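Ops channel
N.P.: pipeline sanity check, posting one input/output pair.
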């Protein structure tokens, strides 16, 4: 048989034996559910951050304030801000729905039941100044209390100015909002700054994709190593070597298990695309009919799904050939974990750094993380975090992919040489010195 025919035969056997396993079906289902959950991260973040307006009631116990205190508070709480816009842009927050009430006790009961967020009671103090009491079940130092505290300060000042006979037109000029915007510290970044919801979504997105790639690399790498040891322990390897070369066996095993991985990746890709298409309807159903997908925080995109497949496949191939070479050095299943420990530790280190940088525990902008993102064995875990956070330069992604491809060729040569002598090595646990001798001189 030709080289290609032998490789295809080995790959077909590996593929069919794996896809029929119950663990493959269960694992695929879990991974599909995971990518759907990742695609729905923007909706989850939007729901957690509070997509609907906070309901605040105002009870006026003073009775002598000019105008409507509720209308004044509403305009102050929902004033235009620069958060989440590019330099020079402004957007209305619309986070609060404020209304006037006449029954303080009934409103307090409504707040206690969770029907409203808070009720603000106004009264005139002994000194003549306004006094405020906020009734709420939320934290006294939380976001709602802090914003209302800032707003009522402006109400007090306006009341004092009115009592000093300052004309309303002059008061309007005093309280006109400042021209305020938020921009990136890096002058080269001209895109819109991220809101807290966008930032949270990118954290969850990078975190989820890093975990997904780590699970698949370790799972499939262990499968490749276990398959080699299984054939060695049953002495089937000696028979197979009469029909195929060690290199053909290695390539076929990696290709077969890689085909299993690709099948799962295609299922993930299809599920992700369907989930992305469903984002708008799901958001409208859960967050309100007026919520569109474009108004959600930054989330999974077809481009990110493509990068997930590219880094996942290259990462698998890079580790799988080494797992196969390492598995060929032992003859018992209980020795597999010991011999693949070095690769597992490297993958775990990359996973930990990727997760910590994705969640903000490590500064993703640090130069040493930029460097580690180009290390082929760490790129699958770090580059997705850098892309989702917006910190990856245009050259980083293509360079890391090229470096991974070049390293894969070198690792394939190394693993094939190790595999060629390891598959016939029985009855001993080779140490580092023995492995080095085998790589240099063969048997």
């Amino acid at each position: 048989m030709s080289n290609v025919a032998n490789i295809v035969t080995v790959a077909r056997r590996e593929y069919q034996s794996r896809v029929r396993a119950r663990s493959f079906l269960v694992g695929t289902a879990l991974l599909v559910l995971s990518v759907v959950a990742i695609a729905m991260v923007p909706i989850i973040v939007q729901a957690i951050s509070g997509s609907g307006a906070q309901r605040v009631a105002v009870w006026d116990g003073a009775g002598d304030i000019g105008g409507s205190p509720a209308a004044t508070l509403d305009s102050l709480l929902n004033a235009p801000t620069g958060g989440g816009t590019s330099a020079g842009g402004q957007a209305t927050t619309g986070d609060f729905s404020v209304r006037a009430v006449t029954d303080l006790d009934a409103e307090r009961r409504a707040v206690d039941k969770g029907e409203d967020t808070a009720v603000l009671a106004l009264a005139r103090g002994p000194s003549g100044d306004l006094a405020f009491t906020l009734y709420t079940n939320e934290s006294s130092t939380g976001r709602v209390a802090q914003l209302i505290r800032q707003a009522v300060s402006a109400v007090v000042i306006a009341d004092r100015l009115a009592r000093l006979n300052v004309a309303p037109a002059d008061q309007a000029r005093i309280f006109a909002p400042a021209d305020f915007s938020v921009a990136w510290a890096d002058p080269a970044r001209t895109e819109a700054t991220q809101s807290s919801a966008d930032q949270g979504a990118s954290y969850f997105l990078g975190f989820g994709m890093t975990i997904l790639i780590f699970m698949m690399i370790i799972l499939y790498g262990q499968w490749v190593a276990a398959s080699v040891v299984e054939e060695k322990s049953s002495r089937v390897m000696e028979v197979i070597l009469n029909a195929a070369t060690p290199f053909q066996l290695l390539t076929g095993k990696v290709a077969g298990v890689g085909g299993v991985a690709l099948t799962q990746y295609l299922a993930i890709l299809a599920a992700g695309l369907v989930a992305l298409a469903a984002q708008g309807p799901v958001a409208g159903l859960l967050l309100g009919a007026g919520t569109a997908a474009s108004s959600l925080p930054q989330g999974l995109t077809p481009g990110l799904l493509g990068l997930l497949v590219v880094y996942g496949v290259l990462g698998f191939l890079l580790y799988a050939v080494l797992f196969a070479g390492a598995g060929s050095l032992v003859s018992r299943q209980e020795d597999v974990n010991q011999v693949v420990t070095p690769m597992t530790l490297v993958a775990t280190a990359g996973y930990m750094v990727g997760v910590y940088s994705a969640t903000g525990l490590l500064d993703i902008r640090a130069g040493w993380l930029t460097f580690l993102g180009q290390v082929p064995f760490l790129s699958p875990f770090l580059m997705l975090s850098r892309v989702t956070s917006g910190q990856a330069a245009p050259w980083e992604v293509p360079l890391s992919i090229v470096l991974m491809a070049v390293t894969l060729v070198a690792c394939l040569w190394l693993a094939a040489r190790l595999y060629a002598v390891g598959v016939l090595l029985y009855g001993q646990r080779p140490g580092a010195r023995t492995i080095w001798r085998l790589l240099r001189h063969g048997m």
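N.P.: looks fine end to end. The longest strand covers residues 54-60.
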